[in-house]
Amino acid sequence: MNVKGFVEKHARKPRGKTIIFWRSVGGRSSIYTDAIIALALKLRGYKTKFILCDKVMSGCLLGRGTGVNRACCGGCYSYGAKALNSYGLSHITYSSLVPNKRTRKFRGIVDSIAYDEIENYVFHGVPVGIFAKNSLTRYLRGEPIEPRRHRAYREFLFSSLVCLDAARVYCHRYTPDSAIFQRHFEYVGWGPAYYYFTRNKNINVIGWQGSIDGTKCITMTHCDENFPVLYQVSDSEWKKCKTTKLTEKEIEFTDARLKLSGISREALLHQLGISDDKPIWCIFPHIHSDPGLCPFQWPFDSIDDWLFTTIQAAMDTPGITWILKAHPAERILKTQGVIKMVKDKFPELEKRFIILSPTTKIKTNDLSLVLDGGITLQGSVSFELPALGVPVILGNPDYPGKEFTYNIGTREELISLIHNVASIRAPSRKLQNWAKKFIYHIFVHKKLPVNAAISRKGYKPIATGKVSMLLPGKDSVMDMICDSIVKGGEFTV
Length: 493
Prior knowledge:
Layout: H1 3-10, E1 18-24, H2 31-43, E2 47-52, E3 59-60, E4 65-66, H3 71-87, E5 91-93, H4 94-97, H5 100-112, H6 128-140, H7 151-173, E6 178-182, H8 191-198, E7 204-210, E8 217-223, H9 235-242, H10 248-257, H11 265-272, E9 280-284, H12 303-315, E10 321-325, H13 338-345, H14 349-352, E11 353-356, H15 364-367, E12 373-376, H16 381-387, E13 392-394, H17 411-419, H18 429-445, E14 448-449, H19 476-487
Parallel strand pairs: 1-2, 1-6, 2-5, 6-7, 9-10, 9-12, 10-11, 12-13
Antiparallel strand pairs: 3-4, 7-8, 8-14
Helix pairs in contact: 2-3, 5-7, 6-7, 7-8, 10-18, 12-17, 16-18
């Protein structure tokens, strides 16, 4: 018996709850992971529905290009529709939600708006222009946005308007109880709908993403009006986490993740070409081509604004040896990414900073041997360095910084902390231990194994022989996932 037949035979009578999966782009193999969760919910009697774009959006990151009804659009939609149909899962298309009359209206808006006004464009209270800007940044993969004028920008705005309208119409016609998104909240195919749903208090919004360390797991979280970040731990989770003593086995796990390469402090100083006669601080920028978040509620206009503010404050702080370490993932960019951008903004940068390129062989953990502190917007250094005894200043107020980091609420607080880094002391032994507990929680308790072959190369369909594991009581992790989706509760094992 195939998967579809098995589910039809064993599914419970539908209950009142309806869970929608906002896929938008169907042509991604991760649709199979959404489908597996949907099948498990269906077997428990809950109604599910998928939302797919059927060649309506004209600006899309998946196709690596723009233009109405591009050649890849038909294949993208058919891929998603075929995958869902093979499992007996139903879907609704963008075109059924957003008719031609509306798309013509959006085309008129897009063609008439001034290029410089796109980023700040708001429609029905949703800042659709931000999502267009984020998508353009990702699409250009490090190429400068100015002074070139990109038609893609307008196409991304069109797609942002379509996504929002699809969400508005769906909520008007139907009453979903929960909406599930794969983590692409900052881009046009998902962000406007996510923004709209999280402001509807009657809808429980959930986000998921692939494993953060390449294992065959996912992580899931309940979302609110703040855009969730990569390492999300709720206050209730954290309260329990920091009061639980780590076992010897758990300590071994965290120590392995924090292991240094074996280089000596003196050798590292020599490799960096610096001495330790002054405090040494390092700025860790985000990936330039991947916005990574939507700055709606934090005090910086963009990630670039945060970085420029941070570097300017560092330059205004004498008596410190400053390092700038680009993210390793920037190796894939067409240009030099952050480093080129910052050098263009600050011509004197190389005289004031030690610059580590994306291809440097110096590891972040090894830097703990010489650093007196680090500054990051968000990311793993915010808990890795404190666990190694190095203080960290966080630049994103929405990031769930814990007691082992220095957190800011305003631009002025960030600048003040940077100006006074010489007085910032290393985290206590207790705070270092809390950071290690955070690491264990993120990389063990938050990782949810699912019945699919997830790998770095993508997501794969569930094997027919494993479909019975989706039945209630057969897999404690899937039981927890479904229960937490419907009733609330943490997504942890």
